[in-house]
Structures are given as C-alpha cells and as structure tokens.
Specification:
209 residues, mainly alpha, 2 domains, 8 helices, elongated
Length: 209
C-alpha cells in the first residue's frame, strides 16, 4: 500500500529531501558512537554536495551541522565539531520590530527626506548649509514630480521646505531649481525598456541555520 507524504514524518528542512531524513533517523539508532560519528560525517558530505554553489559561503559547514541537528530533533548523540544552538534558540520567534509612529508632514517627500531636512536645519549658517539646502530642494522637486507629473513651481518647493524645516531652511526667490522638463527627461533616460521587474520576490529557501 502506498504511503502518502501527509502520513509520513514532517520534514523540518524539506530542501534536503526524505532520503536524507531517513539516513538521519537510521544513524540515531546506531549503538556504537564512533560509527554514528562516521555516518554523520558522511551525511554532512552528502548534504554539502547537494549545494556546491554555497561552499564559499562563510560558516557553510557549520550550518550543515546545525541542519543535521535540526533534522534529528536534537536527539543525535555525536561529537559535533561546532557549537550547536539549543532548540529554544532555533525556534525562538524574532523580536517584534518597533512601529514607526513618527508623523510624516508631507508624505510624497518620504520620511528620509524629512529626516535629512531636519538634520540640515541644525547646521550652522554658511555656504555649506546654503548648498545643502539647494540640493535638498532640487531633490524635493524631483520627488514631487513622481506624484504629480503635471507641474510644480519653485515657489511650492520653497514653501514645503520651510514647512518641513520649521522655517529653519529657506531659499531666496532668486534661486532657480532644476527645470521640470530636465528632471522628467533624466527620469526617462534612467528607465530601461528591457528590464523585467520581479518585485520583491525572494527565491532563497535557506534559513539562517
């Protein structure tokens, strides 16, 4: 009678396949410790051959031994050549990322731009601050056009800059920012028609251990 995978033992690391899991279960039953050690090294060699492209990855061998411990449910009595984390460490849930509650005044510029403006506002008055302020204003104009491709005047950017910096960064009306047509033209040149965007897909199935 055929045995379905749903009826078999669950595989902690399915990328190694059920044959490897069967080997691990087999050596757990070996009574002689030296024989278990030899069999374990043979399995590690076989596991490494399955992923030859990862041989140059730092700590690759260490990870293989950790994977062996995981597949044995941490119940394989052998002489591990590396420190093996406890099941509690392996299965521990990652700490929750703190939620950023900082309010973004003008969302179309993004939080990073707001932080840069706030930092620039702390600079001492002088030529360096003036140059940095103009650079930030030009980048704001570029960001604005991503959301509104119709038009944007320098006056709008100057007012937004003043708002985001709490009036600590200002530019003279004599200052001329990059022309809209020049910004849009540069953006077009950066786009490649032959690039296929795959989004944020992650094809790596390997865990940290």
């Amino acid at each position: 009678m055929d045995e379905y995978n749903t009826q078999r033992k669950k595989m902690a690391l399915p990328e190694y396949g059920r044959n490897i899991l069967s080997m691990v279960d087999h050596i757990k039953a070996l009574e002689d410790r030296d024989e278990r050690n030899r069999a374990a090294r043979a399995i590690i060699s076989f596991m490494g051959n399955m992923f030859p492209h990862l041989r140059d990855v730092p700590d690759f061998k260490h990870k293989l031994w950790v994977h062996l411990a995981i597949m044995s449910d941490f119940d394989l009595d052998i002489d591990y050549p590396y420190d093996i984390p406890s099941p509690e460490v392996i299965n521990a849930k990652p700490a929750k990322m703190p939620y950023n509650n900082k309010r973004i005044k003008l969302k179309y510029y993004g939080s990073i731009m707001q932080q840069m403006i706030e930092k620039a506002a702390t600079f001492d008055e002088g030529e360096e601050k003036e140059i940095l302020t103009q650079m930030l204003a030009n980048h704001m104009k570029k960001s604005y056009l991503i959301w509104n491709k119709d038009a944007v005047t320098d006056d709008i950017i100057f007012k937004d800059l003043e708002k985001l910096s709490s009036a600590k960064l200002t530019l003279s009306e004599d200052i001329k920012l990059n022309e809209v047509r020049d910004i849009l033209q540069r953006n077009k040149k950066k786009k490649s028609p032959n690039v296929v965007h795959l989004g944020n897909s992650n094809y790596s199935s390997h865990k940290n251990y």
